[in-house]
Design goal:
By secondary structure, the protein is mainly β. It has two helices and 13 strands.
Length: 223
Amino acid sequence: MRLGTLLLTGAALAAQGLVAQGHPALSWERVLPLDWQVGPGSPPAKTLADPVASTGPLEARVTGDGTLSLRDARGIIRLKTGLPGRPLKAWRDGGCPLASPSGAWSFPADTPLSQGLGGLRWVAEDFRPFLRGLLWILEDGEGFLTVVHPATARIEYLPLPPGRDLRLRFLPDRLEVAAGDVDRGAPRQWSIPWIGLLPRLAALGPHADRTKPGTALVPFPKD
Protein backbone atom coordinates (compact mmCIF):
# COMPACT_ATOMS: atom_id res chain seq x y z
CA MET A 1 0.00 0.00 0.00
CA ARG A 2 1.39 3.42 -0.95
CA LEU A 3 2.05 5.92 1.82
CA GLY A 4 -0.48 8.37 0.33
CA THR A 5 -3.23 5.73 0.27
CA LEU A 6 -2.48 4.71 3.84
CA LEU A 7 -2.64 8.31 5.06
CA LEU A 8 -5.86 8.92 3.09
CA THR A 9 -7.52 5.92 4.73
CA GLY A 10 -6.43 7.10 8.17
CA ALA A 11 -7.76 10.61 7.54
CA ALA A 12 -11.12 9.25 6.41
CA LEU A 13 -11.44 7.09 9.53
CA ALA A 14 -10.48 10.02 11.75
CA ALA A 15 -13.11 12.24 10.13
CA GLN A 16 -15.75 9.53 10.63
CA GLY A 17 -14.75 9.33 14.30
CA LEU A 18 -15.27 13.06 14.76
CA VAL A 19 -18.72 12.88 13.18
CA ALA A 20 -19.62 9.86 15.31
CA GLN A 21 -18.67 11.77 18.44
CA GLY A 22 -20.82 14.71 17.38
CA HIS A 23 -17.85 17.10 17.04
CA PRO A 24 -17.63 19.08 13.79
CA ALA A 25 -14.25 18.69 12.14
CA LEU A 26 -12.02 21.76 12.08
CA SER A 27 -10.96 23.17 8.72
CA TRP A 28 -7.52 21.53 8.82
CA GLU A 29 -9.04 18.19 9.87
CA ARG A 30 -11.12 18.04 6.70
CA VAL A 31 -8.23 18.26 4.22
CA LEU A 32 -7.04 15.21 2.31
CA PRO A 33 -3.49 13.97 2.90
CA LEU A 34 -0.71 14.61 0.40
CA ASP A 35 1.08 11.91 -1.57
CA TRP A 36 4.46 12.31 0.10
CA GLN A 37 7.25 10.32 -1.55
CA VAL A 38 9.65 8.58 0.82
CA GLY A 39 13.26 9.62 0.34
CA PRO A 40 15.00 12.88 -0.51
CA GLY A 41 14.68 12.61 -4.28
CA SER A 42 17.43 13.34 -6.78
CA PRO A 43 19.69 16.35 -6.16
CA PRO A 44 19.07 19.50 -8.25
CA ALA A 45 20.83 19.57 -11.62
CA LYS A 46 22.65 22.75 -10.63
CA THR A 47 22.74 25.28 -7.83
CA LEU A 48 20.27 28.14 -8.30
CA ALA A 49 20.01 31.44 -6.46
CA ASP A 50 17.77 31.52 -3.38
CA PRO A 51 14.43 33.38 -3.69
CA VAL A 52 14.29 37.04 -2.72
CA ALA A 53 11.74 38.23 -0.15
CA SER A 54 8.88 40.27 -1.61
CA THR A 55 7.21 43.35 -0.17
CA GLY A 56 4.01 45.29 -0.67
CA PRO A 57 1.03 47.07 0.87
CA LEU A 58 -0.58 44.03 2.54
CA GLU A 59 0.21 42.86 6.05
CA ALA A 60 0.16 39.39 7.58
CA ARG A 61 0.46 39.22 11.36
CA VAL A 62 0.95 36.08 13.48
CA THR A 63 0.90 36.15 17.28
CA GLY A 64 2.55 33.69 19.64
CA ASP A 65 -0.75 32.02 20.48
CA GLY A 66 -1.40 31.15 16.81
CA THR A 67 -3.71 33.99 15.78
CA LEU A 68 -3.36 35.00 12.12
CA SER A 69 -4.72 38.28 10.74
CA LEU A 70 -4.48 39.77 7.25
CA ARG A 71 -4.85 43.51 6.55
CA ASP A 72 -5.22 45.27 3.22
CA ALA A 73 -3.52 48.50 2.17
CA ARG A 74 -6.16 50.56 4.02
CA GLY A 75 -5.54 48.69 7.28
CA ILE A 76 -8.86 46.82 7.10
CA ILE A 77 -8.73 43.26 8.45
CA ARG A 78 -9.65 40.88 5.64
CA LEU A 79 -9.18 37.69 7.63
CA LYS A 80 -8.63 36.71 11.25
CA THR A 81 -8.36 33.08 12.26
CA GLY A 82 -6.42 30.60 14.36
CA LEU A 83 -3.68 28.22 13.26
CA PRO A 84 -3.76 24.49 14.09
CA GLY A 85 -1.24 25.26 16.86
CA ARG A 86 1.24 27.86 17.99
CA PRO A 87 3.74 29.00 15.34
CA LEU A 88 7.04 27.13 15.51
CA LYS A 89 8.81 28.11 12.27
CA ALA A 90 7.89 30.32 9.32
CA TRP A 91 9.02 31.04 5.78
CA ARG A 92 7.87 33.49 3.14
CA ASP A 93 7.69 33.51 -0.65
CA GLY A 94 9.65 30.57 -2.12
CA GLY A 95 11.27 29.52 1.13
CA CYS A 96 12.92 32.58 2.70
CA PRO A 97 13.21 31.72 6.43
CA LEU A 98 11.84 34.26 8.90
CA ALA A 99 13.82 35.09 12.02
CA SER A 100 10.75 34.55 14.20
CA PRO A 101 7.54 32.60 13.51
CA SER A 102 5.48 35.42 15.06
CA GLY A 103 5.46 39.02 13.92
CA ALA A 104 4.14 41.20 11.09
CA TRP A 105 5.35 41.14 7.49
CA SER A 106 4.44 42.99 4.30
CA PHE A 107 3.28 41.19 1.17
CA PRO A 108 2.46 42.22 -2.41
CA ALA A 109 -1.09 42.51 -3.71
CA ASP A 110 0.00 41.24 -7.15
CA THR A 111 1.55 37.76 -7.11
CA PRO A 112 1.85 34.92 -9.64
CA LEU A 113 -0.96 33.06 -7.85
CA SER A 114 -3.22 36.14 -7.82
CA GLN A 115 -3.38 35.68 -11.62
CA GLY A 116 -4.64 32.12 -11.21
CA LEU A 117 -2.87 29.05 -12.53
CA GLY A 118 -2.09 30.96 -15.73
CA GLY A 119 0.55 32.88 -13.78
CA LEU A 120 2.52 29.71 -12.98
CA ARG A 121 5.12 27.98 -15.17
CA TRP A 122 5.21 24.35 -14.13
CA VAL A 123 8.06 23.54 -16.52
CA ALA A 124 10.33 26.22 -15.03
CA GLU A 125 13.73 24.99 -13.89
CA ASP A 126 13.14 26.74 -10.56
CA PHE A 127 9.52 26.96 -9.44
CA ARG A 128 10.19 28.94 -6.26
CA PRO A 129 9.86 32.43 -7.84
CA PHE A 130 6.24 31.55 -8.61
CA LEU A 131 5.60 31.11 -4.88
CA ARG A 132 6.20 34.83 -4.32
CA GLY A 133 3.73 36.39 -1.92
CA LEU A 134 3.06 33.28 0.20
CA LEU A 135 3.54 32.78 3.95
CA TRP A 136 4.33 29.27 5.25
CA ILE A 137 3.85 28.47 8.96
CA LEU A 138 4.79 25.26 10.78
CA GLU A 139 2.82 24.90 14.02
CA ASP A 140 4.18 23.34 17.19
CA GLY A 141 2.22 20.11 16.73
CA GLU A 142 4.17 19.67 13.49
CA GLY A 143 1.15 18.05 11.86
CA PHE A 144 0.34 20.81 9.37
CA LEU A 145 2.08 23.40 7.26
CA THR A 146 -0.25 26.38 6.91
CA VAL A 147 0.09 28.26 3.60
CA VAL A 148 -1.29 31.81 3.54
CA HIS A 149 -1.84 33.95 0.44
CA PRO A 150 -2.41 37.53 1.67
CA ALA A 151 -3.24 38.76 -1.86
CA THR A 152 -6.45 36.69 -1.88
CA ALA A 153 -6.83 36.22 1.90
CA ARG A 154 -6.97 32.46 1.42
CA ILE A 155 -5.40 29.67 3.47
CA GLU A 156 -4.51 26.05 2.78
CA TYR A 157 -3.38 23.41 5.28
CA LEU A 158 -0.82 20.86 4.10
CA PRO A 159 -0.74 17.65 6.19
CA LEU A 160 2.87 16.75 6.95
CA PRO A 161 4.47 13.29 7.24
CA PRO A 162 4.72 11.77 10.74
CA GLY A 163 7.77 12.75 12.76
CA ARG A 164 9.14 15.27 15.21
CA ASP A 165 11.66 18.07 14.91
CA LEU A 166 10.71 18.57 11.25
CA ARG A 167 13.03 20.47 8.92
CA LEU A 168 11.73 21.84 5.63
CA ARG A 169 13.69 22.60 2.45
CA PHE A 170 12.21 24.60 -0.41
CA LEU A 171 14.04 23.17 -3.43
CA PRO A 172 13.67 24.32 -7.06
CA ASP A 173 11.49 21.34 -8.03
CA ARG A 174 9.98 20.11 -4.74
CA LEU A 175 9.24 20.59 -1.07
CA GLU A 176 11.34 18.36 1.16
CA VAL A 177 10.69 17.35 4.79
CA ALA A 178 13.17 15.63 7.12
CA ALA A 179 12.43 14.47 10.66
CA GLY A 180 14.94 14.44 13.50
CA ASP A 181 12.91 11.93 15.51
CA VAL A 182 10.65 9.16 14.19
CA ASP A 183 9.24 5.85 15.39
CA ARG A 184 11.50 2.83 14.92
CA GLY A 185 11.51 1.69 11.30
CA ALA A 186 9.71 4.78 10.00
CA PRO A 187 11.23 6.85 7.17
CA ARG A 188 13.01 10.07 8.09
CA GLN A 189 12.76 11.96 4.81
CA TRP A 190 9.99 12.74 2.35
CA SER A 191 9.41 15.03 -0.60
CA ILE A 192 6.63 16.15 -2.92
CA PRO A 193 7.08 17.91 -6.30
CA TRP A 194 5.57 21.37 -6.60
CA ILE A 195 3.25 20.11 -9.31
CA GLY A 196 1.95 17.61 -6.75
CA LEU A 197 0.67 20.61 -4.78
CA LEU A 198 -1.28 21.94 -7.77
CA PRO A 199 -4.78 21.49 -6.24
CA ARG A 200 -3.72 23.17 -2.98
CA LEU A 201 -1.99 26.06 -4.75
CA ALA A 202 -4.96 26.50 -7.08
CA ALA A 203 -7.23 26.92 -4.06
CA LEU A 204 -5.09 29.88 -2.93
CA GLY A 205 -5.80 31.76 -6.15
CA PRO A 206 -8.74 34.05 -6.92
CA HIS A 207 -12.18 32.47 -6.93
CA ALA A 208 -14.92 33.64 -9.28
CA ASP A 209 -17.74 35.45 -7.48
CA ARG A 210 -20.82 33.45 -8.46
CA THR A 211 -23.19 35.54 -6.33
CA LYS A 212 -25.90 37.09 -8.51
CA PRO A 213 -26.84 40.66 -7.58
CA GLY A 214 -30.36 41.21 -6.34
CA THR A 215 -32.93 43.61 -7.78
CA ALA A 216 -35.77 45.63 -6.36
CA LEU A 217 -38.24 42.85 -7.27
CA VAL A 218 -35.97 39.96 -6.32
CA PRO A 219 -33.61 41.24 -3.59
CA PHE A 220 -32.35 37.74 -2.70
CA PRO A 221 -32.03 35.63 -5.91
CA LYS A 222 -31.99 31.87 -5.35
CA ASP A 223 -29.78 30.93 -8.29
